[in-house]
Design brief:
Elements lengths: L4 E8 L3 H11 L5 E8 L2 H10 L4 E5 L1 E2 L2 E2 H9 L6 E6 L4 H9 L4 E4 L6 H59 L8 H28 L8 E4 H19 L2 E7 L2 E2 L1 E4 L1 H17 L5 E11 L2 E10 L33 H11 L5 E5 L3 E11 L5 E2 L18 E2 L1 E5 L3 H12 L4 E5 L2 H10 L6 E5 L7 H10 L6 E5 L4 H10 L3 E4 L4 H11 L1 E2 L10 H7 L2 E5 L3 H13 L3 E5 L2 H10 L5 E5 L1 E2 L2 E2 H10 L5 E6 L5 H6 L4 E4 L4 H7 L1
Parallel strand pairs: 1-2, 1-3, 3-6, 6-7, 9-12, 18-19, 18-20, 20-21, 21-22, 24-25, 24-26, 26-29, 29-30
Antiparallel strand pairs: 4-5, 8-11, 10-16, 12-13, 13-15, 14-15, 17-23, 27-28
């Protein structure tokens, strides 16, 4: 059955016969019902247009004291979405052009009301109206989307600021040995704060997925350590619940795969966490398998549990955001129901799909595939040797020497700078190969080792090393590359590189390169430092933050790390302080200060020739182009933790 569309019509006409004729032919147009109002006076027409929207308005040209043109001109000034069609008794090209110039959408002779042209004019007018409405709806939807993005960024900032205080102060209290009697309670606060932070991150991820702004970035990733992290991450939880966790591989697996390690790990953690949560007894097993599909290879992952299972009618809804599966045995549920929704969306970004097989009281199996491409390189049995934790990755070396980092990405620059500085070596950074060539060939500073990215603006790593070797520079140079195929490695070695480290940076290989090319520092017997010595070696830190709680907390955390901390509350205070004292090792700048931007302040600080390491502290990820423009190398996302600040200093 064809639906009938209602259309509101205002007929401005002073001749009753013409009014009746127009109404008669409007009623003959199929699929539309016209609600017609008849007016003939100038002010009455304008009042009607102001009071309620009208889809279509027919304007007679001759209306006594006024003309249809004067009404049209006045109506157009009201910025209405109404479609206007001018009616006249005789053909007049001048009048036609004048009506269109005043904003009429069409022009009709009254003699054409009974002709097919009248029907076409009405249908075209309504089609144009629908297109315009669609355009306005699309514009409104885009505006709503932009408003939502701004709201999410603001929400992230507002939530991360108090979480900074909660997590930071809790960490300080947990490290206080005098409070060991309340450590269980502090652990509860800390764990729940981390849960809130994870929930915030999930909501932001979901927002990015809905806005199609979350991307998968595939880089070479060691598969063994990534899988081993799962075991170490959940071993405590499964032991506490009294269930078994096993991670197995059916056949050999690739040593290195091209994938987005962060997002793949996020999928695995969500699925394994869910399996453990809804398995009161028995076991959880994660099975990895290499599958060939035509020319392509896939990594197939199955997460199996002996838990409560999921009823058939609920199996589709659990992949929807904010849908929770209630544990029918314990009558409890946890989380916001975002994990599975995000995992399903991430798997789709990888080009796959999550499938589910489940039976109530027996258990569930979640499966998904990750495309690995056509070249998977070397395969070997899965080894679950425990991966190094963050603490164990702290550098055990004590080295001396000068190292140059040639890298255009600020985040990679900062990572390498922090890792290498931990050894005691001195580090300098440049943003491209041309700057590296100019610096090294100038002889202003001698370097013992250079780490060089291959893909950079101005001059890439390949061109740079050829230029340096032609100039007789024999300094060891290590290539940083995301491509580690054998033919590529052979080419790089032939160009003159002394070694290759693949991205993401393998810390162990990095330290091996440093140890091979830099001198070890002589062992110095430890002796108690005097207070004067302690003061001389303390790092001076400046915290620029307008939130007092966050400011005080960061100073306490820095002080607990043996630093000398100072703080100011805003842009102008910071500038005033640095006019008299620029001797700071690190300056932490809040991104959104009450009296200015942290990025702008960073430029002001650099103009004062202050050599401090500048760190942006923000409630949301700042745009990469803004960081590059202001040459910011380090960003900390709120809430700020003790581990973050350890990394900074």
């Amino acid at each position: 059955m064809t639906s009938v569309e209602r259309v509101s019509v205002l007929l401005v006409e002073d001749d009753e016969d013409d009014y009746l004729l127009t109404v008669d032919y409007l009623e003959q147009i199929p699929n539309y019902q016209f609600d017609i109002k008849w007016l003939s006076d100038y002010q009455g027409v304008l009042d009607e247009l102001k009071q309620q929207p009208v889809d279509l308005c027919f304007l007679d040209y001759h209306l006594g004291a006024h003309t249809g043109l004067s009404i049209l001109e006045a109506a157009k000034s009201l910025k209405l979405s109404t479609t206007f069609i001018m009616l006249t008794g005789q053909s007049d090209e001048r009048l036609d052009k004048e009506a269109l110039a005043h904003g009429a959408d069409d022009f009709l002779l009254k003699s054409e009301i009974s002709s097919p042209r009248f029907n076409r004019a009405i249908l075209y007018a309504l089609s144009r109206r629908d297109l315009e409405n669609e355009r306005l709806e699309r514009y409104k939807a885009e505006a709503d989307s932009r408003a939502k993005d701004r709201f999410m960024a603001h929400l992230s900032h507002e939530l991360r600021t108090p979480l900074t205080s909660i997590i930071g102060y809790t960490e300080l209290l947990r490290d206080n040995h005098q409070l060991s009697n309340i450590k269980p309670e502090l652990d509860i606060i800390h764990n729940n704060s981390q849960h809130l932070l994870n929930l915030l991150n999930d909501v932001l991820d979901l927002s990015k997925i809905n806005a199609s702004s979350l991307n998968i970035e595939k880089v070479p990733t060691e598969l063994g350590p990534l899988i081993a992290d799962l075991q170490s991450l959940f071993s405590m939880e499964t032991k506490k619940k009294g269930i078994a966790l096993s991670i197995v591989a059916k056949g050999d697996l690739p040593t290195v795969i091209m994938t987005d390690a962060k997002r793949l790990k996020q999928i695995l953690i969500n699925l394994v966490y869910n399996a453990i949560k809804f398995t009161p007894e028995g076991k959880v097993e994660v099975v990895f398998k290499l599958v060939q599909q035509g020319q392509n290879y896939c990594l197939n992952v199955a997460v199996q549990d002996t838990g409560v299972g999921i009823a058939k009618e609920k199996q589709k809804q659990i992949f929807k955001p904010f849908e929770q599966l209630q544990d029918t045995i314990t009558r409890t549920s946890e989380g916001a129901g975002l994990g599975l929704a995000i995992s399903a969306a991430l798997v789709e970004l990888f080009g796959g799909k999550i499938t589910l097989e489940s039976e109530v009281g027996v258990g569930s199996t979640f499966c998904f595939d990750i495309d690995l491409g056509t070249d998977i390189g070397e395969c070997q049995p899965l080894s679950l040797a425990a991966s190094k934790s963050d603490e164990s990755q702290l550098c055990p070396l004590s080295l001396k020497g000068d190292v140059l980092i040639v890298e255009d990405l600020p985040e990679i620059q900062t990572l390498l700078k922090n890792l290498i500085s931990n050894t005691g070596a001195k580090v300098a950074c440049v943003n491209n190969g041309l700057d590296a060539v100019n610096l090294v060939c100038s002889g202003e500073q001698a370097f013992d080792l250079i780490f060089m990215d291959l893909h950079m603006p101005e001059m890439g790593g390949r061109e740079a090393i050829v230029t340096l070797r032609k100039q007789g520079i024999n300094t060891p140079i290590i290539a940083l590359t995301a491509a580690a195929q054998k033919d590529n490695i052979d080419t790089l070695l032939a160009l003159g590189f002394d070694g290759i480290i693949t991205k993401p940076i393998n810390t162990e290989l990095l330290y091996q390169s440093l140890e091979a090319h830099l001198q070890a520092k002589p062992c110095i017997s430890e002796k108690p430092a005097s207070s004067a010595d302690e003061n001389a070696t303390k790092q001076r830190i400046l915290v620029v933050e307008d939130d007092k709680n966050t400011r005080d907390l960061m100073c306490l955390l820095f002080d607990s790390l043996g630093c000398e901390s100072h703080s100011v509350s805003g842009f102008s205070e910071c500038c005033a302080l640095l006019d008299n004292d620029t001797a700071f090792d690190t300056i932490c700048l809040d991104l959104n200060l009450a009296d200015g931007s942290g990025l702008t302040l960073a430029s002001e600080i650099k103009a004062k020739e202050c050599g401090a390491n500048l760190v942006i502290v923000s409630g949301s990820e700042p745009p990469a182009e803004a960081l590059a423009k202001h040459q910011i190398e380090h960003v900390i996302l709120k809430p700020v933790s003790l581990a973050d600040l350890k990394h900074v200093i």
